[in-house]
Amino acid sequence: MDVFLGVALGLLGLWLALLLGLFLVRPRGVALRLILRLLPDVLRLVTRLARDPRVPRSARVRLWLLLGYLALPFDLVPDFIPVLGYADDAIVVSWVLRSVIRSAGPEVVAEHWPGTPEGLAVVRRLVGVDRGGRGERGVTP
To answer: Among 48, 56, 92, 132, which one is least packed by beta carbons within 10 Å?
Structure first.
């Protein structure tokens, strides 16, 4: 019984650490509900980027892992929990897209964007890349 309790507490601690990590890497200044409205376009973008040979292999691997994570029937935070249930998906998507845009370049992402220019502007703001292709710290990705 003590072993079961120890494992359960360890898993709970790991889950809480993952939630804290997601909270720390969450996008600032963009409402998560806005990101969720863009989700169909973002999923098409992720799929297109994952198939593009111009995107570095490591970035394509991250994109395929992201698609796998999104396809899983379980999440870090269950989807039936209002707002928070989808927040983990939005945070993970933004984190992966940020790294992909920085390695592949904003031009490749813009080429594959299936939605409106306004939606692309939201995605760029979400991942910390402005229109000029500069990263958060003013450094070209």
So the answer is: 132
